[in-house]
Amino acid sequence: MDLEQRLEYARRVVGGDPVATLLGIAVEDVAEGRATVSLSPRPHHLNARERVHGSTLYALADQAMAVAANTLEHPAFIVEAHISFLAKAEPDQRLLATAKARGAGRKLSLWEVDITDATGRLVAVANGRGYHASAPRVKMPA
pTM of the predicted model, to two decimals? Predict the structure, then answer.
């Protein structure tokens, strides 16, 4: 696949992942080795203290890494991730997660994600590792 096909694959196929769709995560921007996804939190994204649940923030970071990792030549699976929560994520603040490659080899890649709220405040950071298989990508729907 050429770059434009990979970007479209990452945006449509990986970005349209059933879990991400269920959660309401949308792809905002895709470039080679980079992706930004967003989420507007709803009541079902909140914890008992009425803040965005940590699992929601993790899912947002994971989706950003997955979309970004699939812009590279070989399709990828995120096989390891770590997240640090830096500030509370408010329910009325749209969230953006931007993933970028910190290093990418033929089989492994390293990813860094910043999650910010609508004011630009950093609420979490994540790091992950992708495994790039030599298997073909899933076919793109028509």
Answer: 0.92
